[in-house]
């Protein structure tokens, strides 16, 4: 479906299936038009209905309030090496790879009749309990349990709480956009896609807004208060999730837009439990290459479940979706340099808690601005082009940090009068928006094809694959840290480590796009779930904005 307007007479018309429909003379026949895409178009989707998922995402963003205090507390008080912290970071991605199990519970196992509200409450309470545990560890009142043990356990519990809430929020972002009109007729797929994209933009903005609200405060508070006090303050931040639970309306069980309650799929639940037991055994037994084994096991489970999920999808579409998954995975698997880089910034550059808070606040503020200005448009661009461009920009924007590792800040201080802190601000300003801009088209693609009744399961399954890529990045980072060994106070190998991580992060998505980009054709992608195929075909759905009809009329933006 293409919506356009004749400039000569100002009459609005739409073209569907070769038939021109005048809105003024035939309003009852004219389908709804895709909304115009102004720079702040996503804000039009703000409503009481969209508020609950946005509040949950706000809490997820605010969960980083204690990060700076945690970083300095771990460095000063806990006996954990950079390798230990990298290993923990890899294990902390495991609950995110299990999102499909939590998501399936949210879809199919009501708690006291609730498939949404109850799970939000459970997740928020887990998050609060974890932060109270961290406060006790920082205060030294853990009844003889080592602080390192409490730190690991609390970190895992906090992640589980966030995963549970995130599952509900993800499902809600697909449910707040109606696929059918109140009279039961399907809505235009182009409009559905645009609104789903706008909701995903708002979700990213809400998450980044939460991070922005606490980023600077987290650093400043960490300077003046002990870590235990910071953790206690953080325990109060899940309040918006409790408000979201009070506002939340359960999805309807009947009528237009119904979300049917399906029975649990034993392949997902019992397979997930067996998978969780295997992961726990790997964690407790700590065999050689435990993280690598866990990664391969998780990948195998996800691939199997994806094959089950898309079993009825046409082969061409299946290949296109698989190619998209591989490209997204490669983009997300870019390895970080690890904690050694931040320790170098603390020890050598003199960055303190307050400055890290300032960097975080500037970065999140620019990310919000970038998402609002570009997010509504970027979902219309080809996925391969978006990810390739962001990967190249990410590598280029790493150059200020790499330059400082070779003394660039000393040269700029002598020549121009500004040093490391100014370069750090420039680096943050350039690179901060990239990660969130990359998430928006991925999440929109996932949301478009979430099936009724299993929206949380589908979203969680695809998000699990995306998060498994982060675990792959952590494993790659650990390998790079094993090759380029950096210890506390010994940063001789850090330049080579950062350069290697940057090059690997650039090469992974570019190689994947070069090999599979030809399969990411819009015509192979199915219409949004819940939109009948016949209607999508009549409306010209091709997975992207339709081209303007012949005759020179411009496409509405």
TrEMBL record:
It is a multi-pass membrane protein. Keywords: Membrane, Transmembrane, Transmembrane helix, Transport. Its main location: membrane. The keyword Lipoprotein does not apply. It is found in: Membrane. It holds the Pfam family BT1. The chain crosses the membrane at residues 54-73, 85-106, 118-139, 201-222, 228-248, 268-287, 293-310, 354-374, 381-408, 428-446, 458-477, 497-516. Residues 1-36 are annotated as: Disordered. Residues 8-27 have a biased composition (Basic and acidic residues). One of its GO terms (cellular component) is membrane. Belongs to the major facilitator superfamily. Folate-biopterin transporter (TC 2.A.71) family. This is Folate/biopterin family MFS transporter. It comes from Caldovatus sediminis. The lineage of its organism: Bacteria, Pseudomonadati, Pseudomonadota, Alphaproteobacteria, Acetobacterales.
């Amino acid at each position: 479906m293409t919506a356009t307007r004749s400039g000569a007479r100002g009459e609005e018309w739409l073209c569907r299936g070769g038939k021109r429909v005048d809105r003024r003379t035939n309003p009852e026949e004219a389908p709804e038009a895709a909304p115009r895409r102004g720079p702040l178009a996503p804000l039009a989707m703000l409503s009481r209905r969209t508020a609950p998922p946005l509040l949950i995402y706000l809490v997820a963003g605010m969960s980083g309030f204690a990060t700076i205090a945690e970083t300095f507390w771990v460095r000063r008080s806990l006996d954990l090496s950079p390798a230990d912290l990298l290993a923990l970071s890899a294990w902390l991605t495991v609950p995110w790879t299990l999102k499909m199990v939590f998501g399936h519970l949210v879809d199919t196992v009501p708690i006291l009749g609730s498939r949404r509200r109850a799970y939000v409450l459970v997740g928020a309470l887990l998050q609060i309990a974890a932060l109270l545990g961290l406060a006790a560890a920082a205060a030294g009142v853990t009844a003889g349990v080592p602080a390192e043990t409490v730190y690991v356990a609390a970190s895992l519990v906090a992640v589980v709480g966030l995963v549970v809430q995130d599952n509900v929020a993800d499902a809600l972002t697909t449910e707040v956009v109606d696929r059918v009109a109140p009279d039961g007729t399907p809505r235009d797929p182009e409009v559905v896609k645009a609104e789903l994209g706008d909701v995903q933009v708002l979700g990213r903005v809400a998450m980044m807004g939460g991070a922005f609200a606490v980023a600077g405060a987290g650093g400043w508070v960490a300077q003046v208060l002990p870590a235990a006090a910071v953790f206690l303050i953080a325990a109060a931040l899940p309040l918006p999730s409790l408000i979201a639970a009070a506002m939340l309306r359960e999805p309807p069980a009947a009528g237009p837009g119904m979300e049917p309650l399906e029975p649990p799929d034993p392949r997902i639940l019992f397979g997930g439990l067996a998978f969780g037991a295997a992961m726990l055994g790997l964690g407790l037994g700590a065999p050689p290459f435990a993280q690598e084994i866990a990664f391969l096991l998780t990948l195998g489970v996800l691939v199997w479940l994806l094959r089950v999920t898309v079993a009825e999808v046409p082969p061409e579409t299946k290949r296109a979706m698989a190619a998209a998954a591989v490209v997204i995975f490669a983009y997300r698997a870019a390895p970080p340099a690890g904690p050694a880089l931040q320790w170098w910034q603390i020890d050598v550059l003199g960055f303190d808690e307050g400055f890290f808070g300032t960097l975080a606040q500037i970065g999140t503020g620019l990310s919000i601005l970038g998402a609002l200005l570009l997010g509504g448009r970027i979902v219309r661009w080809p996925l391969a082009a978006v990810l390739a461009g962001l990967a190249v920009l990410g590598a280029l924007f790493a150059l200020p940090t790499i330059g400082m590792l070779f003394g660039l800040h000393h040269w700029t201080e002598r020549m121009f009068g500004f040093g490391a802190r100014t370069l750090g601000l420039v680096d943050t300003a350039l690179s901060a928006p990239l990660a969130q801009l990359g998430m928006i088209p991925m999440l929109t693609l996932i949301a478009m094809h979430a099936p009724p009744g299993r929206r949380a399961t589908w979203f969680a399954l695809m998000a699990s694959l995306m998060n498994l890529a982060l675990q792959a990045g952590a494993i790659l980072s650990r390998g790079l840290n094993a090759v380029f060994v950096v210890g506390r106070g010994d940063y001789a190998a850090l330049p080579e480590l950062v350069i290697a991580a940057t090059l690997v992060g650039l090469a992974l998505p570019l190689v994947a796009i070069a090999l599979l980009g030809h399969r990411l054709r819009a015509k192979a992608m199915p219409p949004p779930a819940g939109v009948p195929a016949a209607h999508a075909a009549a409306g010209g759905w091709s997975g992207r904005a339709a081209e303007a009809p012949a005759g020179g009329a411009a496409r509405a933006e």
